Amino acid sequence: MILIIDFGSQFNQLIARRVREHNVYCIIEPPDFNIEDIKKAAPEGIILSGSPASIYDENAPKADPEIFNLGIPILGICYGMHFMTEHLGGRVECTEKREYGFAELQIKNSSGIFKNITDKTVWMSHGDSVVKMPEGFEVTASTNNTEIAAIADLKRKFHAVQFHPEVVHSVDGTKMIDNFISQCGCSRDWTMESFAETSIKEITDAVGDKKVILGLSGGVDSSVAAVLIHKAIGSSLQCIFVDNGLLRKDERYLLEKILYKHLQVNIKFIDSSQRFLSALDGVTDPELKRKIIGNLFIDVFEESANEIEGASFLAQGTLYPDVIESKSAFGGPSAVIKSHHNVGGLPEKMKLDLLEPLQYLFKDEVRELGSALGLPDDIVWRQPFPGPGLSIRILGEITKKRLDILREADFILREEIRNAGFYKSLWQAFVVLLPIKTVGVMGDKRTYENTAVIRAVESKDAMTADWAKLPYELLGKISNRIINEVQGINRVAYDISSKPPATIEWE
Predict the structure, then answer these.
(1) How far apart are CA 155 and CA 152, in angstroms?
(2) Model-level pTM?
């Protein structure tokens, strides 16, 4: 296992992903993760992340210095390099010339993390630099702008780099992390099959003869969690699916067909669509929409859950990114852009123990786990869908008519994306309905109908995303079908905004 100490870097999750790509388990902990807990975790190596702070700031985050006495390899990245340098007797200063973007390494020692590195392109993002190395260290790489771009104490297997090997812009960065893992002597035997086997045993031991309730959304996270728990405790799992009237076309049918009929997972379907639509009547503010839907979901879920006798656990499909951001050095790398749509407060209110079997997995790992558990592609590769559903893809007022229009347009988009072979390569593809009507001509008659926007993005983890360069022929076919087949839309646009500065969802 590799321990990653998170000093608040926006790339901390990328570091973890790079480690896990080599079948090595890792955990991310904040700087105040004390030395006794570190010893109990027994990592074979430690990676110190970057940070938005400077090491000389008054409240700069710092880890327990005893980590340098554990006798295991340590890799410092950017701020992690500065923390290692300062604590071991070196010095870091603010530089006159900052360095952001691509840089070319001049490798001075090809052992250690630079073994077999051929492409020397790396990504820099710093305004501070090491000006004096600690005793026992040597310069292992430089750039034209930064003389001390990498250092190492090869005897103690301490390595530090000014650049970010975890990002894709550092072309051979994955190899460098691979080399560090080799220095740690990790066994590289962590797979989704082994994770499933261990998790099933842990769930069985924890639950015993008690019952578990799970709020099933139909998304990949809750579906994989449901199947994993079902394999552990069978009929002692009771899933609750709340139809809030804001779902996509055929959403409930997919769950009934796959999870209920073929995998024998117990699912209780609650139709509360009219209740939700009534609560949203006249509401246009996106944050108010989210709060109304979230609070009402809790009420509906609790009413149904209270009818289940002997329930002791509430299961959720919480993933590792949510856990990481809740305990980061700065409370997560990003500010709150929109309120989270998970069931906040529900466990405490219902006095149930929380069961989160996916809480140490990333989204791509959940998909791998789903495949290992035998789930079909229709669920494993289902694109992320927001908790408030189509309500935040309809800008303005929510009505049944506008929901029906959006459902049909969205169904056409997803059907054509699948037929063209793009569904798995896209992070998300969906339609947004605008509160704007435009003039059109259909059959020599003037129309005044709704405007729809197609949004399709590529991403690894939704932290950043780029708009998908779909073929013009495909976009033209989708637009033509939507306008011809969906009554109420006469104009289709394509969103070519990336994240940042835009978000993936419109609200």
Answers:
(1) 9
(2) 0.76
